[in-house]
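ok so heres the complex, two chains, lmk if somethin looks off
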Amino acid sequence: MFPWTKLFSVKRLLAQKDEDVLDSPGGSSGGLNSGQEEDFDVDDSVTDIEKARTAALNLLEDLNTEKARVEETVLLRTKELKEEKARLKAAIESFPSAFFLVDSNFKIVDRNSKLKDFFPGRETISLDDLQDKFKGFADVKGSCSKVLGNHMPISLNEFYIDNKFIKFLFVPVEPGEGEDFGVLGLLNDVTEQKVLERSKDEFFSIASHELRTPLAAIRGNASMLLDFFVADLPNKEVKQMIQDIKEGGERLIKVVNDFLDVSSFELGKVIFTKEELDIVDIVREMARVYETLAAKKGLFFNVKVEEKEPLYIFADKARTKQIIVNLISNAVKNTEKGGIEIIIDGSAFTQKGFRSVIVKDTGIGISEEARPLLFRKFQQAQEKLLTRDMTQGTGLGLYLSKRLAEAMGGDVVLLESEPGKGSSFMVSLPIK
Amino acid sequence: MQKIFIVEDDPLMIRMYERVFKLSGYEVELAFDGEEAIAKLNTIKEKPAVILLDIMMPKMNGLDVLKLIKKDAKLKDIPVIVLTNLAGKDDAKKGMDLGAISYLVKSEYEPKEVVRITKETIDKYTK
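and the predicted structre for the whole thing:
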């Protein structure tokens, strides 16, 4: 309540007002209610004004409070955004690769400092700069265009520039609301990787060459003594010794080949060139070599084809031969009486979409204990090193045969075996 | 007597192959690295019936020698057998792509088998 609140007639006020108006120049009936007498409750009006004033003050206070709250929120959010930006920047800077982000207008909108390594002394780098720099090695703009068009990542072949091996990767960036797709570009320095690969290649070349060369000399000269100088040899014993030197050389060559093959395979360096092959032709070719050896041991040796020829598989020729040779040579080596039978594609075990070759022998067989370890490297090396079923060889042949077959979409399995009675191994390879 | 041109740097291999080809009735000419091979092939009066070419050699490797042979009008028709201990599929493909007739891994073939294959090559490619 205002201090002057009193119930009084407004008439006097109005009258006073009229007098003022009549006295003023040009004034006539400009007064409020000239000559009229009105009574109204000033107290009510004042109360209403008071209420309005209070409400207004309250509203102002609320607005101030809200303003402070909003300001605080904005400050907090700004701080969070700055921190987020700083983290993102740190993450981008910590990328091992040079990084750039391209928008749909082919403009680089963000990058890390590693990109500057390719443009020393430059602060701003455009997509045109990248295009010019890598002209002839990588079509940067073309790749960005493709990625923006089909939203699929692109990886370009590595190339050698500025004493480095570089590989480009372009990845589509999902748009935010109201934004278009962008492209994330990465330049990976793969020089170390290449050096390591080259070291491995060099190791294989050198190891392969340096191991095989003296072995070729041992085996080759022993062969030549037997081929050209046998008449000069003093006696059969010397001839046998030379035979042993030759055989020792051959075995060592096989060991070296097995080890290098396994290492090569495990390092992913084996290349398979698949083609359509007639499995019957391959088996017959490989069998011819071992037929003679089997005959020398007094063993029978049969090749049986149970389906109509030719029988095609889709596999690497050299590796298919390697698997077949491994199975046949194992059979001949481990059989002293009876013989070997090779059955092509006649097994009930042959799955649809595959051709199988079964190599069956009447040899020493494989014990139950040995079977779980059969396709592992070095076979029984862990437990029964001194009393292995197979005392010759590295035990890598079956391991490698199985891995090679699997790599070509097939398999090598032991179908059955009984100690003293023999074994049956099956290799299956895909038709297509 | 037919001439065999052997390019090989390893003394063990040189002696073995020179011996087996001479015992088999061939004349043998030797070069101990790639550069010597090219120099001799360019000056030799009677061209060899076949070239047996190692790959890993000092000064110039066998694949580079093969490239030069195939570029030279006077030498490109001489059949080349790569005789090496590099057994990789990649190596073999490189040799064959450059125009070698065969790619033989020394440790896989007895010397007389190399002679047999060489004879078959000469019979096939020499008029």
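quick notes: The first strand of chain B starts at residue 3 and ends at 7. thats all i got rn
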